[in-house]
């Protein structure tokens, strides 16, 4: 059983990372833009499967390796902090392809593979999820159940944003401002992860 304080802290971090623009979320929004909400929302199932496989692999692999290499969890946290900071810097100057109405075909396979290879999975499995999540079946089911409970609404929200952009209902929403706001949150999160690595 994972302490509630640890679970809440984990879920807050999961929420922050899941809601941020990235490869999977951009594909979900593109699918919403191209196909509409009702046809594209099913792609969140592919997102869920990709994350479950990748997070489970990274979490269990890193847990086993950490028993032999004691400094590994610290190193993964530090690398993750630098990666998040790099994402924040890139996002600050980025523009969404969706703003120009650029479309691409997104299917279940495309989304599954993109999520499977998404670096966020390493961040979840190696840094954000507590070690107890991979130490017992109960802890694993507890954390993964809460993760899935957040993933579907957030993924659906990205599909809905794409669908609304496709209908021209979010003309007031400036993608550059959204991305810069997300960059600030990511930057703050990278500092938090780095702080947890050195203390």
Automatic annotation (TrEMBL):
Organism taxonomic ancestry: Bacteria, Pseudomonadati, Pseudomonadota, Betaproteobacteria, Burkholderiales
InterPro entries xref list: LeuE-type
UniProt KW keywords: Cell membrane, Membrane, Transmembrane, Transmembrane helix
PANTHER family: ARGININE EXPORTER PROTEIN ARGO, ARGININE EXPORTER PROTEIN ARGO-RELATED
Transmembrane feature ranges: 6-28, 40-59, 71-89, 110-137, 143-165, 177-198
Name recorded for this polypeptide: LysE family transporter
Cellular localization per UniProt: Cell membrane
Topological relation to the membrane, as annotated: Multi-pass membrane protein
Superkingdom classification of source: Bacteria
Signal peptide residue numbers: none
One Pfam family in the UniProt entry: LysE
Source organism of the structure: Paraburkholderia edwinii
């Amino acid at each position: 059983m994972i302490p509630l304080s640890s679970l809440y802290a984990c879920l807050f971090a999961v929420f922050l990372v899941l809601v941020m623009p990235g490869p999977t979320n951009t594909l979900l929004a593109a699918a919403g833009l191209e196909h509409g909400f009702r046809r594209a929302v099913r792609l969140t199932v592919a997102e869920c499967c990709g994350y479950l496989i990748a997070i489970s692999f990274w979490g269990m692999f890193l847990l086993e390796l950490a028993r032999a290499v004691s400094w590994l969890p610290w190193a993964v946290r530090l690398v993750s902090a630098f990666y998040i900071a790099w994402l924040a810097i890139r996002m600050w100057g980025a523009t969404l392809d969706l703003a120009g109405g650029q479309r691409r075909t997104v299917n279940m396979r495309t989304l599954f593979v993109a999520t499977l290879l998404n670096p966020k999975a390493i961040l979840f499995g190696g840094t954000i999820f507590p070690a107890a999540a991979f130490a017992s079946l109960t802890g694993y089911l507890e954390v993964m159940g809460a993760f899935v409970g957040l993933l579907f609404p957030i993924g659906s929200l990205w599909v809905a944003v794409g669908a609304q952009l496709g209908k021209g209902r979010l003309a007031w929403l400036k993608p550059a401002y959204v991305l810069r706001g997300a960059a600030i949150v990511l930057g703050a999160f990278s500092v938090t992860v780095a702080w947890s690595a050195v203390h």
